[in-house]
Specification:
heterodimer, A: 106 residues, mainly alpha, 0% strand, B: 130 residues, 5 helices
């Protein structure tokens, strides 16, 4: 009785999440950090809390928190992290020692 | 159950501040902080990015449709944990394949592009449609 609902929820959310901006952010943070365990714990906790809010609110969340403000906050956070990473790579380049092979992935 | 990277990682070191990480493969200055700092960065970024996302809309729809929010919550949580595990593993693989400087530049460009796209989306929905 509950297994089909569980499976359909899992599949829907998993497929919707693959290649999403959230996962891209996780790939970015994990790739530039040496602590994959902390990244996994942090992102998993955030996602569980987000889905708890989603399932618990049951449709009223959008009226409580305006999604525009959240998107704006997320965009600012992304810009800050991206700027910091670019700054870091530029500083590393100034130090000298970057071997540039033209393997452009993704 | 083939690979459990976070279980194999000896994260319980709890090194004092200033002690280098056990694996000096990516000695980035900002990200190689303590467990708590990395945890907080990941948590904040992912939480902000995820709220109001289409996954949450799907969870909301399923939850309202079925009337069983607990089952929906468990299924959604398992899916999100799996997808974040995929993301972490992909990032770890990329950090082994690419030099750290190149990876940081690409990641920075990607994050800024995502930020601009998100900001544009928010601005467009804030503006009246007419």
């Amino acid at each position: 009785m509950q297994l089909p609902l569980l499976a359909s929820t899992f599949l829907t959310v998993f497929l919707a999440e693959l290649g999403d901006k959230t996962q891209l952010a996780i790939v970015t943070i994990s790739g530039t950090s040496s602590r994959s365990g902390a990244v996994f714990a942090g992102s998993a906790a955030a996602l569980v809390l987000a889905s708890l809010l989603g399932a618990g609110a049951g449709g009223s969340l959008a009226s409580v928190i305006p999604p525009n403000a959240l998107q704006l906050a997320a965009s600012v956070g992304f810009l800050v992290i991206g700027g910091r990473l670019l700054l870091l790579s530029v500083r590393r380049e100034d130090d000298g020692g970057g071997d540039e092979d033209g393997s452009a992935a993704v | 159950m083939s690979d459990q990277p976070q279980a194999g990682q000896p994260q319980a070191s709890q090194s004092p501040t200033g002690a280098p990480a056990t694996t000096p493969t990516t000695p980035s200055e900002t990200s190689a902080g303590s467990f708590g700092a990395v945890f907080l960065t990941s948590f904040t970024t992912v939480f902000l990015a995820e709220l109001g996302d289409k996954t949450q809309l799907a969870a909301l729809l399923l939850s309202a449709e079925s009337g069983r929010p607990v089952v929906v919550f468990i299924g959604a949580s398992l899916a999100l944990i799996s997808s974040s595990l995929v993301g972490v593993l992909l990032g770890r693989w990329l950090s082994r394949v690419l030099p750290p400087q190149q990876l940081e530049r690409m990641a920075g460009i990607l994050m800024i592009a995502l930020g601009l796209w998100l900001g544009r989306q928010a601005a467009m929905t804030m503006l009246p449609p007419t």
